[in-house]
Amino acid sequence: MQFKTASSPHIAQQSSVQSVMYKVLLAMIPGTIAMVMFFGWGVLVNIILASVVALSCEALMLLLRKRPLKPYLLDGSALLTAALLALALPQLAPWWLTLIGTAFAIIVAKHLYGGLGFNPFNPAMVGYVVVIISFPREMTQWVPPLLDDYTLLTFNETLRVIFWDELPLTYGWDAITMATPLDTVKTQLGLELSINEIENHKEYGSMFGSIGGFGWEWVNGLFLATGLYLCVKGIIDWRIPAGIIAAILVLSNLFALYDYASFTPPTFHLFSGGIMLGAFFIATDPVTAATTTKGRWLYGAGIGIFIYIIRTWGSYPDGIAFAVLLMNMAAPLLDYYTMPRAFGHRWNEFPHHHLGDKDEE
Amino acid sequence: MSLNSRHLWHFHGGLKLPSNKAISTSKPITKALLPKRLVIPVRQHIGEAGKLQVEVGDYVLKGQVLTRASSYVSAPIHAPSSGKVVEIDELPAPHPSALNTLSVVIETDGEDKWIDLTPLNHPNTKSPTELRQLIRQAGIVGLGGATFPTAVKVNVGPQAEIETLIINGAECEPSISCDDMLMRSYAREVVSGCGLIQYIVSAKHCLIAVEDNKPEAIAALHAIITEKALHTIEVVAIPTIYPTGGEKQLIKVLTHKEVPSDGFPSDIGVLVQNVGTAVAVHKAIRLGEPLISRIVTITGEGVLQPQNMEALIGTSMSELIEQSGGYHKDAAKLIMGGPMMGFTLQTDHLPITKGCNCLLVENTAEQTAEAMPCIRCGACATACPAQLLPQQLYWHASSKNFDQVQDYHLFDCIECGCCNYVCPSQIPLVQYYRFAKTEIWNMERDRIKSDHARIRHDFRQERLDREKKERDEKLRKKKELLAKKKLADAAAKESDGKTTEIDPKKAAIEAAMQRVKEKKAAQQTEKTDATSATESSDEQNTQK
Q1: Which of A17, B48, B275, B533 lies deepest, with the highest CB count within 10 Å?
Q2: What is the ipTM of this complex?
Q3: How many CA atoms lie less than 13 Å away from B280 in the CB half-sphere?
Q4: pTM score of the predicted model
Q5: What is the CATH number of the domain that holds B276?
Q6: What's the structural domain count of chain A?
Q7: Which residue of A has its CA nearest to B403?
Q8: CB distance from A354 to chain B under 8 Å?
C-alpha cells in the first residue's frame, strides 16, 4: 500500500491566530458596554465605522498585494485594530477622523510593512498618533460621563453630530463635551491648584469617582477583569500588563509621597484614561511586543514609565500611544539582550561572536 | 514503597498530550508469524555498516552473523531465522531519506534453527570489557529509536565516573506502547539487564524512570526489585509530560543536572539506556542471543486491531499490519515512530529494523490549514524543552541567516515538535529547523572540501618550488664543475706552451659570462618543464 508523506509532528493543537484574536475581541465587550453606558452611542458608532473602514482597507491592500482574502479578512486582526483605535478616540470625533486614523493604521502601519506579523509598530496606536497630532481640536471632543449637568445624546443625535457635524438645536459644543479627568487635572495643576482642591472643585469635582475618573473607573475595572481572564487563559502574556501597572504604581507612589498636592495619586492613575485597555489589550499585541520572558517585563515597565512621564510632564493628557510606540522600537533590542539561557548552556553565554568578528575585521 | 519519595525536578516547557496508548495495550504482546522472507538492512544503526560475512546461496542458522562490525562505531547484524541467503542487494529500507540500502535477504526454511548458544550464568565472573564485547557481538543498538551502538555507549572511558544509570522507560510519545508492554511482560529481564549495565559501567545506583501513566509497568518492575531485594535499583514514577523521555530532559527531571550543550551525559556522571536495550543486554549476556527481534507497536485509527508484536528484524511491515487486522478503509498515513517525532513512510513493503518501535497508521492525511504568518505570540518559546526561542530560529532559518540561527542555538534543538504543536499560525517550524541544519551541514562539508583543496594546492605549490630549487642547485653544481674543468684544461694548455701569464681577472670574467649564459639556458628548460608539469596535472584533474 502507498501512503502520503509529511513532516513531523503529525498532530497539532486546535489553536489558531483567528481564535486568539476573537477571544481578545470578546474580552473587550464588557468594558465597551460600560463605555457605551457612560459615554453614549458615539462609542459604538466609532467602533462600527472603524471596523468597516479597517476591513475595506484590509481587503484593498490584500488585493493590491495579491494575497488570499479569506484567511486574512477572517483572522480578526483588522477588527481588533479597529476596535482598539475606536475606543481610544473621542466619542464624538467626526467620521473622517476615525476614517483617516483607521485607514492609516491598516494601510501604512500594517500593510506597507508587510501585513499581519510583520509590522514593527502597533497599527492602532500609529493611527491614533497620526490623528492626535494632525487634528488636536477634534481630538478633544470627549463626552462627559453621565453627569447631572450633562445629558447623553440619543443615537440619532449622535449620528448627526458625527456624520453631519450638526449639533442638536438646544446644545452648544460646550454643553455636550468636556475635558477628560486626566486633562482637567493636568490643566488645573498647571493653574497651581492642589489635587485636593481639584477633586473638590465645584465645577470639576463631579468628574472624579471614588478611585479614578467617574465612569472611567468602571471602564478600567472591567477591562482589568477581562484582561486578567485572558492572562489566566494564557491568551495574552501577563508580564506585559504587570510590568506597566507595576511601573506606574512605583512611580506614582514615589511622587505622591514626595508631594501629594501636586502629583496625582496611584489609584487615579490606574483607573483613569485608557490604562487598563492599554495594558491588557493594546500593549499585549504580540507582533509588536518583546517576546522573551524578561523582555516582556522590561517592555511593560518601559511603557509604564513613559506613560507616567508623558502624563505628568508631557504636553498630552494621556501617553499610552506614545509609550507603546516608543517601546515597540525597543522590542527587537530587548529580545536580543534578554535571550533565555538555552538548555545545557552557561548563563553568561551570549550570541555576540559574529558581531565581534566584524569588529575585528 | 519508595516510589514517590524521590525528589524530582522539572524541565522547561513541554506538553501534556493525549496519550492514545490504551488502544494498543489491551492485548498481551503477540508473537508475529515467521515470515517467508526476511530483508535485513546491513546498516540499521548510527555509525558504519558492518562487513558482509555471507554470500548469496549460503545457508544460515538463526542468530548467525551476517556482518561484522567494521569499525569502533558499528554494529553487526544476525540472521533472524534459519534459511538461505537468496539476495544481497540495495533495497528499500525505512529511513527518512527513502533511499535504498544494502540488505541481506533470507528465505526462511521454517525450522527456525538456532546456532549453538553459549549462555553465561555468572556474568560477574567476567570483566566489564568482556561483557562489553558480548554486547558488541550481539549487535545491540539503542532500541529507543536512536540506534546508537550500545557497546560504544557503555564504554564511558576511564575518566568518567558514572554515578547514576538511568533506564529510560518513560516512553513519552503518544500512541507508542512497546516499552510499556515490554516492562509489564519482561520486568524480570529488564531488571536483570539493568544490573548487567550497572555492573559494566560501575554505576553507584540505577533508576528506572517510567511515566506515571504506566502504573502496571511500575508495579511489575517494583515487584521484581522487592523480590530480589535490590537496593541500588529503583523504579521512579515521573510526571507524564512530553518530551520527558528525551535523554537530556529525563536526566534533568531525575538529577536536576543539565548535560552540557557540547558534552555527553557521562560528563555529568550519568548514563541513559532504554528499557528495550536493557532486555537485549540481558539476552545477549545471559542467554547468548544476539539482537534479532524487537517489540513493535502497531497502532492508530488506521489499523483495525492495534496491538504490540514481537517481530523478527527484517519482517515486512505489511505482514505485521495484516496480522493486526489490516488497514481501516480510510488509512492514509503510515508513520514509523510516534506522532510527534516519527517520520512518514511511502510504502509498507519495508522491513522492521532495530530502531522501529512503532507503526502508526492515521486516517487523515491532509495537512492542516495553510500556515498564517508568525504573530510572535511566544507560545513556542513557552513550550520549548531546550529553552530556545523557536520563533527567532524560524525567522532566521526562513531567511537563511545561518550564522544567526546558530547564535540562537539551532543545534540544541531536539526536534521534539512542541513548538510546532502549539503554534497558532500552524507554521511547520520543525521542517524549517531541519532545513537549516541540513544546509549548515552541507556548507560545513563544502568548507571542509574547499579547505582540503586549498591545502592540496598549497602542498603542490610547495613541491614545485622545492623541485625548482633542487634543479637550480644541481645545475649550479654542474656549471661549477664545468668551469673548474675548463680552467684546469686552459692551465694545462698554457703550461704546455709558452708560459703566458694567466690573467685571473680575465678568467673570472669569462667564467661569470659563461655562468650567465648557462643560467639563461637553464631557465628556458625550466619554463618548458613547468608548463608541461601543469599540463599533466590538468590532465589528471580532468581524468578525475
Answers
A1: B275
A2: 0.86
A3: 32
A4: 0.83
A5: 3.40.50.11540
A6: 1
A7: A354
A8: yes
